[in-house]
């Protein structure tokens, strides 16, 4: 009985552990077919550190997750990333902005600046991407 219980606990814990941290190319996912149908082309997006030319409407953090079961890591990361980007765009529209600048990964409140890659936490059950950006009216 103890063995079966330990086996079940081990399986459950293994299923909840993260597969790892991935750094995915921003341009690949932004230029995907999925992004074309999903994102708002009216809201400009600037990744990495950038000068804000316009009115700063505040900083917003988007933490999005997707079910990663039966999906390749690349697909799960792309879905979570595009959902986070869309969330930033929606906030820009809500605040009257037309751009989001200084977009960077912000997993567990640790900023990671890059204009080439974003951080994706891929797990066996869920995949997460956290982005932070400044809403701007240019």
What this model shows, in words?
The chain has 138 residues and is an alpha+beta fold. It has a single domain, classed as Translation Initiation Factor IF3 (2-Layer Sandwich). It is 36% helix and 37% strand. It contains 4 helices and 6 strands, in the order αβααββαβββ. It has helices spanning 2-16, 26-30, 33-38, 73-95, and strands at 18-25, 44-47, 55-67, 99-105, 117-123, 126-137. Strands 1, 2, 3, 4, 5 and 6 form a 6-stranded mixed beta sheet that branches. The protein is globular. The termini are far apart. Residues 5-18 have low confidence and may be disordered.
Question: Would you kindly provide a brief summary of this structure?
Answer:
By secondary structure, this protein is an alpha+beta fold.
CATH architecture: 2-Layer Sandwich
CATH superfamily placement: Hypothetical protein apc22750. Chain B
Q: State the domain count.
A: 1
Report the sheet with the most strands, covering strand number, pairing sense and barrel closure: 6 strands, mixed
The helix content, as a percent range, equals 25-40%
The Rg value, from CA coordinates, equals 17 Å
What is the CATH topology descriptor? Answer: Translation Initiation Factor IF3
> What does the overall shape look like?
globular
CATH class reads Alpha Beta
Order of helices and strands: HEHHEEHEEE
Number of helices: 4
Name the structural class: alpha+beta
Strand content: 35-45%
Report how far the terminal alpha carbons are from each other.
66 Å
Low-pLDDT residue spans = 5-18
Average pLDDT confidence is 89
Number of strand segments: 6
């Amino acid at each position: 009985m103890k063995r079966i219980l330990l086996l079940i606990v081990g399986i459950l814990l293994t299923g909840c552990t993260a597969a790892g941290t991935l750094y995915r190319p921003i341009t690949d996912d932004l230029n995907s077919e999925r992004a074309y149908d999903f994102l708002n082309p009216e809201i400009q997006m600037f990744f990495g550190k950038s000068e804000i030319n316009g009115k700063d409407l505040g900083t917003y953090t988007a933490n999005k997750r997707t079910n990663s079961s039966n999906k390749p890591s690349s697909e799960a990361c792309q879905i979570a990333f595009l959902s986070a980007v869309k969330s930033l765009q929606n906030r820009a529209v809500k605040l009257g902005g037309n751009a989001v600048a200084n977009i960077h990964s912000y997993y567990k409140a640790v900023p990671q600046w890059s204009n080439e890659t974003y951080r994706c936490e891929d797990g066996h059950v869920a995949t997460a991407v956290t982005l932070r950006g400044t809403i701007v009216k240019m």
